[in-house]
Amino acid sequence: MNSHTIMERAEIGRRKRRKTRAILVDAAMRVFAEKGLEAATNAEVFSEAGVSRGTFYNYFETKEDLLKAVASELVDQLNDQIDSYTEEISGTPERLAWTFGSFLNRTKADPVWARVILSIAAMNFPHPVGASTGANIARDMQAGRDQGLFTLEDDEVAINIMVGTVTQAMHSTLAGRTGPDHAYHVAKSILLALGTPEARATEAAKLARQADL
């Protein structure tokens, strides 16, 4: 067997592994949606995926590992959607306000999605918001500073403010403790904390009311 054949077979194996993993993650999303995070079992997931128990455990040793994979996929999808929806929004405060609103409005519409996102934030995988979201926040913070609309210099503090406020607001939304204008007030409060002038924060936060994914 020559080296080219060995490399081809190795690549086929990698593609097959990626495909099987994607099937398991998709199945987990469906099971979580139907059963809820707490009630769902690994057995239900590999049954839904149509794979054996042994195959499942080759990819995920624990339910927590599976949840991390599902949440990572959801966050990546969300980031892609946010970039698509906000590409024509030129102002960084407006872009962020829309993003905050989209999280909170999606929480109302899809509580299972929200619980997965909150679970992964609580597990700190490997960062409360994930690497891609953290990079997006750093990008937006620098853009806001360049526009003279943010005064906060520390990106980690900015992440703490944004993630802490939005995740707690998601918890409040799930608990039914929020009013009809909650997303607006959350967005405005965060923008003010980032150093956005009050008049601009007030206007930008209005986008949070109708933001949707």
UniProtKB/TrEMBL annotation:
Binding region for DNA: 41-60
Q: Return the SUPFAM superfamilies for the record.
A: Homeodomain-like
Example GO molecular function: transcription cis-regulatory region binding
Q: Supply the PROSITE patterns for this chain.
A: HTH_TETR_2 (PS50977)
Would the keyword DNA-binding be found if you checked this record's keyword annotation? Answer: yes
Q: Which residues cross the membrane?
A: none
Keyword annotations for this protein, in alphabetical order, are: DNA-binding, Transcription, Transcription regulation
Q: Where is the HTH tetR-type domain?
A: 18-78
Q: Which domain of life is it from?
A: Bacteria
Which PANTHER family does the entry mention? Answer: HTH-TYPE TRANSCRIPTIONAL REGULATOR BETI (PTHR30055:SF234), HTH-TYPE TRANSCRIPTIONAL REGULATOR RUTR (PTHR30055)
Q: What is this protein called?
A: Regulatory protein TetR
Organism for this UniProt entry: Hyphomonas adhaerens MHS-3
